[in-house]
Amino acid sequence: MKSIVIGRNGNIYFGTSKGLSIYDGRQFKNFTTADGLISNNILVMEQDEEDNLWIGTSKGLSKYNGEKFENFIESAELSGASITDIEQDDAGNIWLVVSEGIYIIVENENENENENESENESENGKGFEVLQNFEAGKGIAEGTVNALINSAEGTMWIGTSNGLFSFQHSHDIVKNIDRFTHYPVADNYNSNWIACLFEDYEENMWLGTYAGLFKFRGSSFTGYNIEEGLENNFIYQVFRDSRNNLWVGTAGGGI
Question: Among 72, 138, 155, 181, which is 20 to 30 Å from 146 by CA?
Fold first, then answer.
């Protein structure tokens, strides 16, 4: 099981290495490449504000509208790409983490806005455009992008192998690539390798790194590692439940 999404319609979506499974409260329905999915090896999923399910796989991107799949095979940038994280920003843009960096997809309301959209239109008449690849030299330092999260205040936070970045996005993303701000976690490699990001109810940003857990607030970091009780310093998942308990998934050390 690689990804689980609880939909606003009450359905639960399970992304696996063998395709997509949807549980509606009564039964499971399974989907594979035979049903239109671009690849059975699902890595990540995200539901957008229009209830479309964006599915990142090891061989590209699919969008499921509840009836059919739309595959982004016409995009040279995304065709065959391994997509490891997906996030929607407040402007409705879709951010994708791929091996080369970050791609951003904007859906155009007017099908004539982009002459190249004709073969990439979904059933409701919208087309898409891959706007930007943010990589080294375009706001992000040299390294690997591992995680994205859109904060409650509308900032996109980016976890990389070279620390934490923020992006104050707007509708005109391409003209604002200088809006990245870099927040180095510490002066060592393991602390700056961010594997996951999580924002809690108090708008603290939690970073899972290879040197423990860090809480980021404002512009300062507070670190927690095995000396504070963690079983392992390699942190891969962080979650805070409704009772304000913080759950931390580690490498080989359990939860």
Answer: 72
Q: What digits encode the pLDDT tens for the residues 23-43? A: 999 999 999 999 999 999 999
Q: How far apart are CA 168 and CA 56, in angstroms?
A: 24
Give the contacts of 243 (CB within 8 A, at least 6 positions apart). Answer: none
> Which of 90, 202, 207 has the alpha carbon at shortest distance from 160?
207
As to burial, measured by CB atoms within 10 angstroms (0-12 exposed, 13-18 middle, 19+ buried), residue 177 is: middle
How far apart are the C-alpha atoms of 183 and 208, rounded to whole Å? 15
Q: What share of the chain is helix, strand, coil (3-state, %, to 5)?
A: 10, 45, 45
Which ranges of the chain would DSSP assign to H, the alpha helix? 189-192
Tell me the torsion sign for CA atoms 36, 77, 46, 94: negative
